[in-house]
Design a protein that fits this description.
By secondary structure, this protein is mostly beta strands. Helices cover 4% and strands 44% of the residues.
């Protein structure tokens, strides 16, 4: 994680009797050498509470300011359509709910909370780098260096836009969402035979679902190099889907698009 991001934790407590919000606590978290976060201390009046916990990343200089998700109310944590971006490590998030926690003013209560990832992720990988380079050698005015191209990804229909930490389920959707992406190495530190052209982390439920998107690859002058529409991507909460194909030379090269949904069991939550 880049040095300009910090992990933070948002905790809300609701009276179990009537559901009114009793307190809200926001705190930056620091991990130990094993990656475990330290305890968070909260002072609250005696009572029985339902506790909601949301952990994400913020700008290290503005820990109270939301970065990727609006957390004003943990019953409706929402994405920010106007500042929407694709996959970057700082979009990782985790959450959990603790029901009927009894607090006694004469005692100190310690609760161990296990966080769950409310997100699914996907990557779009183009496998035709060598073919694109050959095309660029023949038509350098039409095909810019891969590092200079711009990728626009637009969701064609609705995607999940809100998550309820209390129920552990999505509770709203939105349309008109998209993001721009700068090509980067699919594996390793340099672009070789493959290149990553897009990716995102999106809210997901426990059941399998899908999104449909359009991916458009453009030159620095805005000229369309290739375009794919109706790309359906299956996803599952806590897992990553990999989509591969000849995206750079779509319409020129042969070869279809492959979607890998053979999800592995070794999902690591970065909290």
């Amino acid at each position: 994680m880049a040095d300009n991001y910090a992990m933070r934790c948002v905790v809300e407590g609701y009276n179990s009797a009537d559901g009114t919000k009793a307190f809200r606590h926001v705190e930056r978290m620091d991990a130990d050498k094993e990656g475990h976060c330290r305890q968070i201390e909260i002072n609250a009046d005696e009572g029985i509470y339902n506790i909601l916990i949301w952990c994400d990343h913020t700008n290290i200089n503005e820990p109270d300011r939301d970065l990727h998700y609006n957390t004003d109310n943990l019953h409706t944590v929402t994405v920010m359509p106007d500042d929407y971006i694709g996959t970057i490590p700082s979009k990782e998030a985790s959450c959990t709910a603790v029901s009927s926690l009894s607090l006694d003013c004469g005692m100190t209560s310690t609760v161990e909370a296990f966080l769950n990832r409310p997100l699914a992720s996907y990557r779009i990988i183009s496998t035709d780098v060598e073919r694109y380079i050959r095309m660029r050698e023949l038509h350098p005015d039409k095909y810019p260096p891969i590092e200079d191209i711009k990728v626009d990804v637009r969701y064609e229909f609705f995607i999940i836009s809100s998550f309820n930490v209390d129920t552990g389920r999505p509770n709203d959707s939105a349309n008109g969402i998209g993001y721009s992406f700068k090509p980067c190495p699919a594996e390793g530190a340099i672009i070789s035979n493959t290149v990553m052209l897009g990716g995102d982390m999106i809210f997901a439920s426990d059941s399998d679902s899908s999104v449909t998107l359009t991916i458009e690859i453009k030159s620095t002058t805005g000229q369309t190099i290739s375009r794919a529409t109706g790309l359906k991507i299956d996803y599952r909460r806590g897992y990553e889907t990999t989509v591969t194909g000849n995206f750079l030379t779509l319409g020129v090269a042969s070869g279809g698009i492959q979607i890998d949904t053979s999800w592995r069991e070794d999902i690591i939550i970065r909290f």
